[in-house]
């Protein structure tokens, strides 16, 4: 969601602007009356019951794998992401469908609602999501009136809505008290929900590693609070607060050292993460992190994936060594439900309204950050594929076997692709229909159905997805046959000639 676009649609809007102007003129009077909307942190410290980092989490990548990233955009984005999942379920293979290939979902804002629900309830939940979450919507349960003096006080004091109005409601009606322990216990894709640490100006992923730096236990944290943080549009919602627990800290595991002590020449984004991590681990006093909409730093939800690649020292990160010799095809689908620029004031020879300028400036910052994230992901994918092939081709047959590599081994047969499912791929007039849907938390049934269908069509129309599915089907048929004589293994001795003769597939 972008800024206060979530409540822009109200017929009260212009009247509220006049009321706000009068209120600001009397700011000195109001300042003494405003009560800050502040919710106490509910995360808990590490304890003996806290699972160790990585405990119970098996390698997620298989020979054919799909990773998803769900963008923000209110309930429009939630419905669009749901349409993507239904399209993958419709795309069949000899032994299942492509929904079964999804190993990871990254998400921000409205996309986090769909990602968390599917991660928690799986396929059976997917069948209920439309009727139980999308169609009822969430906005009618929120404080919305901008002419109510009490709400104006809340707005100036931190946000119209706090945990009682949003986080608790999400917990009651959608996630039913579930914590991350329940999410991690399911056999399904890894779910990475992202918010924004607005003090350090970085993305904050709800991962055990991030909470470990706070000396806190993610397994006991409510999923609803993470989704609320990911969707916490400034002004509409007060920030969600998490805190550190200096007295509960444990030694930092080796896999987090890349975030705490960046390598020379590390990207600025990694350095910003290192500064935040150092603050999180302050041994002298607790820190209180205010979390807002994940779209403020990356409205595509891919930055943690890019940062992990930059921070870890191995040539195959963020994969494990076993995953590095297992994967052949990884398709990364970035699901972008954002809308293009809108409004007619660009054609008017006159000053646009202050609210149009403010909203356009917010959208410009969000879209600019999203484009940079997309560019970083594309560059990372190309570099990662080359490094992965070089690593695989440096292994001896014995090393491949020790890592449980496949019997049919071609070290250079790896392709990592990134593709975008967005409204540009949706045919008219459906595209224009969905572009007109506002960024809200409740929508008419017809808008929900249109957004779902747009997500479905955008996905089924992807040529890269059709190619992936065709290879997937051919591979399933081929693996039923005895091993072929032309299967090869490239050892370190012939790595150079092998790579020179066979450039990375797809280039």
Give the helix/strand layout:
Elements: H1 13-25, H2 27-31, E1 44-45, E2 64-70, H3 74-90, E3 92-93, E4 96-97, E5 102-108, H4 110-134, H5 149-156, E6 159-161, H6 167-175, H7 180-185, E7 190-197, E8 202-205, H8 208-213, E9 216-217, H9 223-230, E10 235-237, E11 240-243, H10 257-260, H11 268-280, E12 288-293, H12 303-311, H13 321-326, E13 329-336, H14 354-393, H15 397-402, E14 415-422, H16 430-435, H17 445-460, H18 463-478, H19 495-501
Parallel strand pairs: 2-5, 2-13, 5-7, 6-10, 13-14
Antiparallel strand pairs: 1-9, 3-4, 7-8, 7-12, 11-12
> What is the total tally of β strands?
14
The whole-number mean of residue pLDDT values reads 84
Radius of gyration: 24 Å
Query: What is the end-to-end distance?
Result: 36 Å
Binned, the helix content reads 40-55%
Give me the secondary-structure category: alpha/beta
| Number of H/I helices | 19
Broad shape: globular
Hey, roughly how much beta strand do the residues contain? 5-15%
Poorly predicted residue ranges: 1-19, 22-32, 483-507
Largest sheet: 8 strands, mixed
What characteristics describe this protein?
507 residues; alpha/beta; 8-stranded mixed beta sheet; two-stranded antiparallel sheet; 19 helices; 13% strand; disordered N terminus; disordered C terminus
